[in-house]
Amino acid sequence: MSKLNLRKLNEPLFCFTSDLDWNPDAAVQATVELFERAKAKLTVFATHKTPVVQESALVQVGVHPNFLPGSTHGGSFAEVMEHVFGLFPQAETYRSHSYFDNQAISEAMSRRGIRYDANLSLYLQERATPLRHCHGTWRFPTFFDDNIHWFHGGAWDFRKYRAQIDSPGLKIFNFHPYPIALNIPSLEYYGTTRKHFKTLTKEDAARHRYAGSGPVDFLGELLEFISSRYPTYTLKELYQAVIIEQEDNAPHADIAGRPAMSGSYEASNTDARKALVLEQYEKMDAANVYATSRDYHLRELEIAAIARYTAGGADTDSILDCGCGNGYTLISLGRQRRFARMLGVDFSENLVSGARGLVERFRPSLKSIPEFRRGDLFEFLRTDDEQFDFIVTERVIVNLPTEELQDQAIRALIGKLKPGGRYLMMEGTQEGFATLNRVRRAAGLGEIPDRYAGNESSRKLPDERVRAVVEATGAADTVAEENFSLYNLVSKTVHPLFVAPEEPRFSGKMNECAAVAQRALDEAGLSLPDVGAGKMWVIRRR
Asked: Which of 78, 232, 475, 512 is 20 to 30 A from 359 via CA?
C-alpha cells in the first residue's frame, strides 16, 4: 500500500515529457538539446528506437504504445505491448498514443509491473494530484500538452499562464519534437510543413521554422522561470518524491523481508531451525517482487550482476535457481533473453505460488517462461539428475543451519553443472561484513548486528572456506568474485550520516545515487575491496 506525500504537493512540481510519435531524429535532437542547455530533465515516451535519447543523461525513457486501429505496433493490445516493451524492456512507465486507455490495457500494464504512468490529460488544471488506479498503479495527469493547446487556440504568451503555472500541484508539460524543431504555433501551420515530417534535416528545420511567437518561445520563458525557483523531475523521480511506499518505513538495518521467528533459532536443532525458517517464508507477501529483501536497489544490483554472467549465451542454455523465493530473479532474466529451460525450486509453497503469480503478471514481457517447483534443496539435488548451464543461489547457503550443510550444498550444486557451466553464488561474506562495520565504527556509527529479528538464521561464509570447498571438489574453479562495495559504503555509511538523526530509507535519493554509481563502476570493469556482506562467487565447472 502507498499514499501521497501531501506536503510535497503544496508546491508546484515540474516534469517535462515528450511523445516521440515517430518524429525524425533531427527533431528529437533539437528537443533533447534544448532541455540539455537548460539543464532540465526530460521523460521521453518512445514509439521507436533512436540513439538520441539513449545518449542523454538527463532523459528517462518510457514507452508510447499506439493502441489505435491500424497501429504499426501490432494488431492487438498484447501485440502492441510486446512490441514497445521489446524495444525498451527496462521502461518503467508509459503514455498511450492519444492518451488511449481502457480497463484491459491498464490491467495488463499493472500485471507487467508498471507502477506509474502519465496516461491522462487535465489541461491547465491547478492543484492536480496523482490518481490511484483501481489496478494499483498511480496515474500522473498532464497539465499542458502542445497539441491540445493548439485545439484550444491557445496563445504562446507565457505571461498569460504564469499564475496557473506557479500554483501548487503537478505541472507535467508535454511537447512533441516536430513542433519544437519548427516552432509550430498552430494546427494550420503544421499542415503547411507536414510534408517535411519524414525527411526533416537540421537545415530543413532552420529553413521552415516559424519566425513569430510559438512553442519554443513559450518553453524558453517557462524554463527560464523555473530554473531559479524550482527543480525539474523525471517522471520516475516525481513518483519517488510524491508517492510514499509505506513498507519502506522500516529501520535501515532491517534488510531481510522476513518476520521475526516465533522461537529461538540458536537453541533449536537442525530440523527445528529449518522449520523456523520455513515458517518465516510462509508468512511473506509473495506477490511483492521485493518480498525477500527490502533493500530493492541492492536487489536490482544483484540481479544485474547475475545477468552479466548469463548474457549472450545460446538459446539452448538452461538455468536453475535453487531457493528461488518468489521467482523475481528468474523472471527478470527471462525478460532479458531466451533460455531453453528455466527452473526455480524453493521449499516454501507460499513463495512458489507467488512466483507462479508473478509469471502471469509479467508474461507479456517474458522471452522465456520459468517453471517453479516446490522442493527441499537437498532432496532435489539428491534425486534430480538434470544438469544445467547456469545455477544461481541468492542468500540460500547462508541460511542453512550448519557449516557442514553449507559445504555439502556447495559441492552438490557444483555437481549439477554441465562441463563449462557456472554457479553464480550470491551469498554473504564474513570478511566483507566485518569491514563494513569497521568503516561504520570509524565514522561514529553503530555496528549492524550479524543477526537480528527477521534475520536470525544468517550464517555468513568465510572467503577461504568457500575457495577451499570449491578446490576440494577437484572439478571446479572460482573464476571471479563480485561485490557491491561502493553501494554499501554510500547506502550504509554516507546515507545514515547525511540524514542523521533521522533514519535512512531504502527509497532515499542517496541509495538511488549509490546504485547508479555502483552500476557505473561495474560497467567500467572496476571494483573495490569487499565492503558489506553481499558477494557473488562465480564458480566454473571444468
From this structure: 512
Compute CA distances 221 → 127, 168, 217, 278, whole Å: 22, 19, 6, 60
Could you confirm whether domain 2-246 is CATH 3.10.20.90? no
The predicted model scores a pTM of 0.60
Q: How does pLDDT run across 328-339, given as a tens digit for each residue?
A: 999 999 989 999
Q: pLDDT tens, 76-87?
A: 999 999 999 999
CB 275 within 8 A of CB 456: no
pLDDT of 147: 93
Asked whether the beta carbons of 496 and 490 are under 8 A apart, the reply is no
Q: Does domain 263-541 match CATH 3.40.50.150?
A: yes
Long-range contacts of 296-300 (CB under 8 A, 24+ apart): 296/506, 297/487, 297/491, 297/506, 297/511, 297/512, 297/514, 297/515, 298/255, 298/484, 298/487, 298/491, 298/515, 298/534, 299/328, 300/515
**Domain spans in the chain, listed from the N-terminal domain onward:** 2-246, 263-541
Q: CA 146, CA 154: separation in Å to the nearest integer?
A: 9
> Rounded to whole angstroms, how far apart are CA atoms 476 and 394?
20
Q: Give residue-wise pLDDT tens across range 58-115.
A: 789 999 999 999 999 999 999 999 999 999 988 999 999 999 999 899 988 988 889 9
